[in-house]
């Protein structure tokens, strides 16, 4: 009992001494009132500690929990100001996205324009035109250039307009010559077409294109968009009859 | 003898400020602010030893460390607020200085909230037993 009492008194004395010390340390009078309030509460807590312990069990744990809770609460309320680096990173991301969007749009419009030109000027049916862009660094800016163009012609049977039946014979006749042209383009381009030596028919459902047609398409694209003919690839779907 | 250094620094700074003030009030203010900052940082190391004594006292008497933490936070807030407000006041912005002090007071009161809540809970817990 005496030991407990002396412990309690020691606690009270220590807290009061601490309070006196703090009052000396405080820099100005304006803060004194507020600091005194908090320190007074602490002294009250110490004096009441036997009662508190009787009623609430371990009140110190509760107090600690409360204080840590308040400490954690503060940062959540803080306004998060983005730093300059964050802003720049975001700007870069947006820039990249914008560039990509612009490139996609450009590809689409180019494809549409090329298809239109081929259909109109050569009276050829075109199934699809696939343009792939390449980003080149010019000075500070990245500028897109046309890397390759892949023109897909529909199967000859289905194809309307000028490409009619006689072409079938053409394909067989000219096969030996046409290989030359197409092999060059294929090396630069996609994987699908695999022309072998003297065969005019490719393996995966593609047939060699009539060389005059392909030449015309190439010259048309070169004229209209300044694409080198080596970068243009032309393929044709194999017709069902073949 | 740090006190001589500090007082000497203060005197030199004061003379310089008086000389400069006529030509360039801005530089006078900067000089005052930096002198204040220097003295503040110079003395913070000394406060460290005082705080060590406080910690020692708290440890030996066995009062909970959370009390000491709260008290030290109060002292820290008071010093920083005082310092900032003083510089702003030197620049002639009395209203901003008083806002800074207000913020310090609010933050000190926030420290008291957990303590108050524990006491209030106890008092409420006492009431039914009393009635």
UniProtKB/TrEMBL annotation, chain B:
Classification via InterPro entries: Spore_III_AC/AD, Spore_III_AD
Residues annotated as transmembrane: 6-21, 26-45, 65-85, 106-127
Superkingdom classification of source: Bacteria
Pfam families per the UniProt record, alphabetical: SpoIIIAC
Keywords of this entry: Membrane, Transmembrane, Transmembrane helix
Protein name listed in UniProt: Stage III sporulation protein AD
Species name: Paenibacillus glycanilyticus
């Amino acid at each position: 009992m005496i030991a407990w009492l002396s412990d309690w008194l020691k606690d009270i004395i220590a807290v009061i001494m601490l309070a006196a010390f703090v009052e000396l340390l405080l820099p100005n009078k304006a803060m004194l009132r507020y600091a005194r309030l908090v320190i007074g509460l602490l002294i009250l807590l110490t004096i009441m500690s036997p009662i508190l312990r009787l009623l609430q069990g371990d009140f110190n744990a509760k107090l600690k929990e409360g204080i840590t809770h308040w400490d954690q609460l503060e940062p959540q309320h803080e306004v998060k100001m983005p730093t300059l680096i964050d802003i720049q990173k975001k700007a870069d991301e947006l820039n990249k996205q914008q560039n990509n969007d612009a490139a996609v749009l450009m590809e689409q419009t180019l494809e549409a324009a090329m298809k239109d030109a081929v259909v109109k000027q050569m009276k050829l049916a075109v199934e699809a035109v696939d343009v792939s862009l390449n980003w080149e660094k010019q000075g500070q800016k990245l500028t897109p250039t046309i890397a390759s163009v892949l023109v897909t012609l529909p199967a000859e049977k289905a194809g309307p307009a000028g490409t009619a039946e006689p072409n079938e014979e053409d394909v067989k006749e000219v096969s030996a010559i046409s290989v030359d042209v197409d092999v060059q383009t294929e090396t630069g381009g996609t994987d699908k077409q695999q022309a072998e030596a003297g065969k005019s028919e490719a393996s995966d459902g593609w047939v060699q294109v009539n060389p005059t047609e392909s030449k015309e398409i190439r010259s048309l694209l070169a004229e209209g968009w300044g694409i080198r003919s080596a970068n243009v690839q032309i393929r044709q779907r194999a017709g069902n009859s073949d | 003898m740090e006190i001589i250094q500090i007082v000497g620094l203060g005197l030199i700074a004061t003379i310089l400020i008086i000389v400069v003030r006529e030509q360039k009030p801005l530089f006078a203010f900067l000089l005052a602010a930096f002198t204040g900052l220097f003295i503040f940082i110079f003395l913070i190391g000394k406060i460290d030893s005082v705080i060590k004594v406080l910690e020692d006292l708290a440890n030996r008497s066995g009062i909970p460390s959370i009390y000491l933490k709260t008290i030290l936070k109060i002292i820290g807030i008071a010093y920083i607020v005082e310092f900032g407000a003083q510089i702003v006041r030197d620049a002639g912005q009395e209203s901003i200085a008083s806002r800074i002090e207000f913020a310090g007071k609010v933050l000190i009161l926030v420290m008291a909230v957990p303590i108050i809540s524990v006491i209030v809970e106890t008092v409420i817990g006492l009431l039914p037993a009393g009635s």
